[in-house]
Amino acid sequence: MFRKLPNIIVTGTPGCGKTSHAELLCEQVKGLTHINVSEFAKNNDCIDGYDKERDSAIVDEDKLLDALEPLACKGGLVIDWHCCEIFPERWIDLVVVLRCNNTMLYNRLTKRGYKESKVRENVEVEIMQVLLTEAKDNYDENIVIELASEDVDSLDENVSRLAQWVENWVKDHPDGIDTSL
Ligand SMILES: Nc1ncnc2c1ncn2[C@@H]1O[C@H](COP(=O)(O)OP(=O)(O)OP(=O)(O)O)[C@@H](O)[C@H]1O
């Protein structure tokens, strides 16, 4: 099977704007499919318990990858999750790491009603650039890009840039990519 569209990961600390970016990109570029991993895992029986301390579901990563594999082989996925290292390198053409100013992130998470400990933990993750390091450690640095997601203008600019990148990828891969390799 050949995939004719790239697969993109949109990652970043919770509240950075992954879902906002992924949704808008999929609205603007025909053929792309938004995979909100938390929802996808729930809908595909890939939940393996609940982490009370973190107040979040535990995803069974093996089951998740099995469920995603056929879709990843078709291509055109925009994978939206706060973790990127589990996705095989052969699936992924671009890793977008969204970054956000600490005060803004604090306000966004507080507005969501997150408890103080969860807000602090996530702001620290952002300060320590945890997601950027994870992306660079697990994928070729040439496919990892860092984008600021701080206001509506930056959201629009980022999405236009990503849409242009997809258009260029398609032109550069007229026969697609062989997913059996
Ligand atoms: N670039 C931006 N400009 C203005 N508001 C933004 C921007 N990005 C995100 N937001 C706002 O921040 C909040 C969190 O955004 P979003 O749900 O897209 O983040 P997320 O990274 O997907 O979070 P999670 O990992 O928890 O799902 C939303 O209220 C959204 O409207």
UniProtKB/TrEMBL annotation:
<feature type="region of interest" description="LID">
    <location>
        <begin position="111"/>
        <end position="121"/>
    </location>
</feature>
<protein>
    <recommendedName>
        <fullName>Adenylate kinase isoenzyme 6 homolog</fullName>
        <ecNumber>2.7.4.3</ecNumber>
    </recommendedName>
</protein>
<dbReference type="Pfam" id="PF13238">
    <property type="entry name" value="AAA_18"/>
</dbReference>
<dbReference type="GO" id="GO:0006364">
    <property type="term" value="P:rRNA processing"/>
</dbReference>
<feature type="binding site">
    <location>
        <position position="18"/>
    </location>
    <ligand>
        <name>ATP</name>
    </ligand>
</feature>
<dbReference type="GO" id="GO:0005524">
    <property type="term" value="F:ATP binding"/>
</dbReference>
<keyword id="KW-0539">Nucleus</keyword>
<keyword id="KW-0808">Transferase</keyword>
<feature type="binding site">
    <location>
        <position position="19"/>
    </location>
    <ligand>
        <name>ATP</name>
    </ligand>
</feature>
<dbReference type="GO" id="GO:0004017">
    <property type="term" value="F:AMP kinase activity"/>
</dbReference>
<keyword id="KW-0418">Kinase</keyword>
<feature type="binding site">
    <location>
        <position position="17"/>
    </location>
    <ligand>
        <name>ATP</name>
    </ligand>
</feature>
<keyword id="KW-0067">ATP-binding</keyword>
<keyword id="KW-0690">Ribosome biogenesis</keyword>
<dbReference type="GO" id="GO:0005634">
    <property type="term" value="C:nucleus"/>
</dbReference>
<feature type="binding site">
    <location>
        <position position="112"/>
    </location>
    <ligand>
        <name>ATP</name>
    </ligand>
</feature>
<keyword id="KW-0547">Nucleotide-binding</keyword>
<dbReference type="GO" id="GO:0016887">
    <property type="term" value="F:ATP hydrolysis activity"/>
</dbReference>
<feature type="region of interest" description="NMPbind">
    <location>
        <begin position="36"/>
        <end position="59"/>
    </location>
</feature>
<keyword id="KW-0698">rRNA processing</keyword>
<comment type="function">
    <text>Broad-specificity nucleoside monophosphate (NMP) kinase that catalyzes the reversible transfer of the terminal phosphate group between nucleoside triphosphates and monophosphates. Has also ATPase activity. Involved in the late cytoplasmic maturation steps of the 40S ribosomal particles, specifically 18S rRNA maturation. While NMP activity is not required for ribosome maturation, ATPase activity is. Associates transiently with small ribosomal subunit protein uS11. ATP hydrolysis breaks the interaction with uS11.</text>
</comment>
<dbReference type="GO" id="GO:0042274">
    <property type="term" value="P:ribosomal small subunit biogenesis"/>
</dbReference>
<comment type="subunit">
    <text>Interacts with small ribosomal subunit protein uS11. Not a structural component of 43S pre-ribosomes, but transiently interacts with them by binding to uS11.</text>
</comment>
<dbReference type="InterPro" id="IPR020618">
    <property type="entry name" value="Adenyl_kinase_AK6"/>
</dbReference>
<keyword id="KW-0963">Cytoplasm</keyword>
<dbReference type="InterPro" id="IPR027417">
    <property type="entry name" value="P-loop_NTPase"/>
</dbReference>
<feature type="binding site">
    <location>
        <position position="20"/>
    </location>
    <ligand>
        <name>ATP</name>
    </ligand>
</feature>
<feature type="binding site">
    <location>
        <position position="15"/>
    </location>
    <ligand>
        <name>ATP</name>
    </ligand>
</feature>
<dbReference type="GO" id="GO:0005737">
    <property type="term" value="C:cytoplasm"/>
</dbReference>
<comment type="similarity">
    <text>Belongs to the adenylate kinase family. AK6 subfamily.</text>
</comment>
